[in-house]
Amino acid sequence: MSSPDFAPLDGFDTDLRTLFELERIDRDLFRAATVFSERFALYGGQVAAQALRAAGSTTPEGRRPHSLHGYFLRPGNAAQPTVFQVFRDRDGGSFSARRVVALQDGEVIFSASVSFQGEVPEAPREQVPTLGEDVPSPDESPAYTIPRLFSFEGRSVPQPHEAPGAPSGRWPTRFWARCAEPELAADPLVDACVVTYLSDISTGIGPFARDGWWPGPSLDHAIWFHQNGGAADWMLMDLHPHAVANGRGLYTGSIFDAAGHLLATLAQECLHRAPRPS
């Protein structure tokens, strides 16, 4: 049950800046006070983004997120505050390493290792597929309502992978998304939180959904940040399925900006659920 000090919001009547604001309880202890009245478990992208914000609040000035590797351990309650405990593993000459655990009711619901790096004056070089002709621009694409995300608008694009027998578009592996708060891109840490928040919203193993088997909850999630600016304009989520085995599905993904530059790379494993008895 949530405390009277944390009255759940109906629907998603807030913004990302508010969502990423954390109350500092102690030196390395933080609390996310924004809670919701919704029937779903706590959205994984939200808790991962807040964990990144907590870790980044303990690093030296000028260090930007480099990577996050997290495990979703228990379902979280969206109508209950989450406490984040940060462990300062190391501050080196160029990198800072942090571990974070997210807690509800005294139990860990999410744990992550996060790395931060000082800025390096080097021009980015990319060797990834550019946006092809089969990816229309956001202005040429129909509107798509991204489920569970607020402060975002979406655009649907042709899907490179289809799930036989699955409802069309139920788990899109490719779509445009834009944050409604572009000013958040000015802070590299918050900008990375925006990208992290988006990164868990769909699943890349949707094309493996057949014969009653469906994608389930996320198990582990990794994201590498290459460039800033995700919150500034449209981003393209491009997910690629790889394999399903032992009840787990693996996919990787890329997040591009509107000009086709690679902002982040992600990898995720999630449960692959067997058909339930009637």
List the helices and strands and how they pair.
Layout: E1 9-10, H1 16-19, E2 22-26, E3 29-32, E4 36-37, H2 44-56, E5 63-72, E6 82-91, E7 95-104, E8 107-118, E9 143-144, E10 152-156, E11 174-179, H3 188-199, E12 214-225, E13 234-245, E14 248-257, E15 262-273
Parallel strand pairs: 1-4
Antiparallel strand pairs: 2-3, 3-6, 5-8, 5-12, 6-7, 7-8, 9-10, 10-11, 11-13, 12-15, 13-14, 14-15
Folded structure, characterized:
With 278 residues, the protein is mainly beta. It folds into two domains: 119 residues, Hotdog Thioesterase (Thiol Ester Dehydrase, Chain A, Roll); 144 residues, Hotdog Thioesterase (Thiol Ester Dehydrase, Chain A, Roll), CATH 3.10.129.10. Helix content is 10%, strand content 41%. The chain has three helices and 15 strands. A 13-stranded antiparallel beta sheet has the order 2-3-6-7-8-5-12-15-14-13-11-10-9, covered by helices on one side. The chain has a two-stranded parallel ribbon with strand order 1-4. A hairpin with a 2-residue loop joins strand 2 and strand 3. Helix 2 packs antiparallel against helix 3. The chain is globular. The two termini are 32 Å apart.
